[in-house]
Design goal:
Blueprint (H helix, E strand, L loop, with lengths): L6 E4 L3 H12 L4 E4 L11 E4 L2 E4 L6 E3 L2 H8 L12 E4 L2 E4 L4 H8 L4 H15 L8 H9 L1 H16 L29 E3 L6 H8 L4 E4 L8 H7 L2 E4 L3 H4 L9 E11 L9 E4 L8 E4 L13 E10 L8 E2 L3 H15 L4 E3 L1 H4 L6 H17 L3
Parallel strand pairs: 1-2, 1-10, 2-9, 6-12, 10-16
Antiparallel strand pairs: 3-4, 5-8, 6-7, 11-14, 11-15, 12-13, 13-14
The chain binds flavin-adenine dinucleotide and uridine-5'-diphosphate.
Flavin-adenine dinucleotide binds next to helix 1, helix 11 and helix 12.
Length: about 375
Amino acid sequence: MNEKFDYLIVGAGLFGAVFAHEAALKGKKVKVIEKRDHIAGNIYTKEVAGIQVHQYGAHIFHTSDRAIWNYVNQFAEFNRYTNTPVANYHGEMYNLPFNMNTFNKLWGVRTPQEAAQKIQEQRDAAKISGQPRNLEEQAITLIGTDIYEKLIKGYTEKQWGQKATELPAFIIRRLPVRYTYDNNYFNDTYQGIPIGGYTQIVAKMLDHPNIDVETNMDFFARKAEYLADYPKVVFTGMIDQFFDYQLGELAYRSLRFETETLPVDNYQGNAVINYTDAETPFTRIIEHKHFEFGKGDDNQTVITKEYPVDWKRGDEPYYPVNNQTNNNLYKQYAKLGAKQDQIIFGGRLGQYRYYDMHQVIHAALVTVKAEFESGK
Ligand code: FAD
Ligand code: UDP
């Protein structure tokens, strides 16, 4: 047994970093291992051409929980960025999320009453009765068939590689529907992008004499030794991989990011443009400088195209696919996990949940509380 450390944390993402930080503050000695060559998991940002480039897709922090907002503000100052993505459907531009600007552009309606009537007509014509059984029914129930066809179906089916009729309804409920002229993508009270990027947040969390971080180290290269050496392990990788896929594979969705620096000052006029047709192979283009209000070199801009990819073993598992089958399988893995007192499973992959950053911080703090208040 390792005399030096109380905890081994597998994964230097947000969950692992919050746990490590809180454990260190409680006097525990923590070893963090990370298989990538950098810390911060999927929130990793890096400076290029004078701006912070989000290496694993656009990350906008948002929460309505004041405690979580205060917590994260210990580690960075946030700017006032509000996410207002725009959709490009075969060259037609629409504001997102679905709001009066979208309805006006699409139908020429001007008042909330006219918009509501239009959506009701489309809902009635679609004849969906009872609880929506899948994403398509949920979308049409919320917003009608025109928006479903132009702004949801193509994007969703390429993003998830499945028919919208086979996907769970909750995915589309992430997006607000608003009868006001308000393009804010989130309903939350607090929102922004950390000035100087996200990596510093994790770096500051891990910057403690009780924490030792090792990158380029995969837990599975030494699993048996790690389990023999460390009294407690916090595992934020894939729970099915931890158990050697013994009950079967959980499904994930992967992505390929194509980043380029272009010799133009302003490429697309917005941080995020979604391509909602079925034919364009990428889902969105991010232009990173628009997260930071005029920062960055003139006549240079960095853009990233995001291509959805089928996941296979060895690929980065960016999204859990939380349909009924996978959730049931996850529950079986979680049962196995609960029998192992030595291991805590956490984060998007360890808990197989479509967590946003604020939810990961919350989940990690709940885990910390359970761990340190139960007197273990
Ligand atoms: P991760 O960040 O995945 O960290 C897990 C870490 O564990 C990784 O670094 C991984 O390399 C490491 N690891 C895994 N297995 C092993 C192993 N065997 N050995 C060693 N290390 C291992 N959230 C928002 O709030 N707002 C957004 O706008 C937003 N946009 C997003 C866009 C995209 C494209 C994606 C994919 C996610 C987005 N998120 C967003 C979600 C956000 O990224 C997550 O909530 C958060 O990063 C999850 O933190 P985590 O620690 O659970 O996982
Ligand atoms: N979505 C869509 N059209 C869009 C944007 C999103 O149909 O222009 C759907 C799609 O199914 C997506 C879901 O809404 O998976 C959630 O969108 P969000 O922007 O929250 O996705 P994330 O940033 O997590 O990839």
